[in-house]
Amino acid sequence: MKRQYLSFLAGLTVATGASLGLPALAESWVFMGQASTGEEVYVDRDSISWGNEGLRFIYSIGNETIYAIAYCDSNTWYASGYDQVYSPTSTATSDMIGYVCSIGNN
Prior knowledge:
By secondary structure, the protein is α+β, with helices and mostly antiparallel strands. 30% of the residues lie in helices and 39% in strands.
């Protein structure tokens, strides 16, 4: 009985997460290089997808994970939580926006 209950809770958690529009649990982090701050920059390849607001993706810089929207035409991105649009300031962030846009436009 205990095993069936735990299985039910696991299924409920997965179903609830999916219905809330949460990102998939699978992650595939791709190293982009070092930011101008010296921190490592990664993009979660599995997070790149089109939504109502545009090309969404998740990236990490240092120990921080950031949800973002890519604006490929202007080579910029919006970082959720910072409420700001950024332009590349390093090879890593330039590669990041280029990578996201190339995956998203295929």
